[in-house]
Amino acid sequence: MRVLAAMSGGVDSAVAAARAVEAGHDVTGVHLALSAKPGTLRTGARGCCTVEDAHDARRAADLMGIPFYVWDFAERFTEDVVEDFVAEYAAGRTPNPCLRCNERIKFEALLDKAIALGFDAVCTGHYARLSAVDGVVELRRSADDGKDQSYVLASLTREQLSHAMFPLGDSTKAAVRAEAATRGLAVAEKPDSHDICFIPDGDTQKFLGNRLGQSPGLLIDDATGAVLGRHAGVHEFTIGQRKGLGIDAPAPDGRPRYVLSLEPVSGNVRVGAAEKLAVTTITATRPSWPSGTPLTGPIECVAQVRAHGGTAPAVAELVDNHLQIHLRTPLTGVAPGQAVALYHPDTNGDLVLASATINTTA
Hints:
Layout: E1 2-6, H1 11-22, E2 26-33, H2 51-64, E3 68-72, H3 74-90, H4 97-116, E4 121-123, E5 128-133, E6 136-141, H5 150-153, H6 158-161, E7 164-165, H7 173-182, H8 204-212, E8 217-221, E9 227-231, E10 258-263, E11 268-272, E12 279-288, E13 299-304, E14 311-319, E15 322-331, E16 339-344, E17 351-361
Parallel strand pairs: 1-2, 1-4, 2-3, 4-7, 8-11
Antiparallel strand pairs: 5-6, 8-9, 10-11, 12-15, 12-17, 13-14, 13-16, 14-15, 16-17
Helix pairs in contact: 1-2, 1-7, 3-4
């Protein structure tokens, strides 16, 4: 097969590309330039989107003896990831920019271009597995639970997954690093990327403040209705947040307060006790079906609301093109804007059934 290997500059994508070459595929490496001003992205060799990462990706491709290109996706990245991130926070929601990047950039824009150029598949360093049952591609968790990325890939369609390759799905991170060293890849010990690449200093509040300005509002005690303080905008907060609330006086019971809800229209941020964060019902929009098969009735499943952790047994059903999810065990820190992924319980919870964007919780 003709394979386009997306090479971020990190160890995972480098080993994935090397495995594709070793498997006998005709591999071409590509690095995505995601900013018209590379200096505005995070600096330092962190394995994602920096100038240093592009150089690391090229060196890895040279070692493998494969063609290598840098494609400019800066405008698409700004529109589909950065601007979406800002708009979601302005609306009082909590987005996942890495999920959106996978969905809109790597497996929409990149895959579309790859197919148009005659490639059969896009290869990435994601930790997830693909299997085929009766010709239908299925997305599953990786063998390394600690690195599993099926959650951020769960919004992909069956057609997209049919043109995807995840060579690392059956490996652990430790094994991948060891293999990179054996292959002589200079990125073998390169640190993983954990930060948001377009917020170079890691200060999300500052970034959003510069984009959105100030929209003052009130901090309100959910139990008493008392005004506890003021803030510069709901974009400064996320559901479940405890620190940095700007509340000077302790609660009457001496217990910490947490952000319970955000009201972008009024500007109010409601805070209260930890137990009020418990969620048992989720309504989610824009459902996607990695296997191509929507739910036809209520189904027992495992729901996951964060990239790592945040799982609970649940019953889900499709109602008026919305996912209605009833959690058998409450979850906390569940916020509108986050994704919820559903896994089949009869496959050790590793088969992805669906993904959707959380709209409301109760």
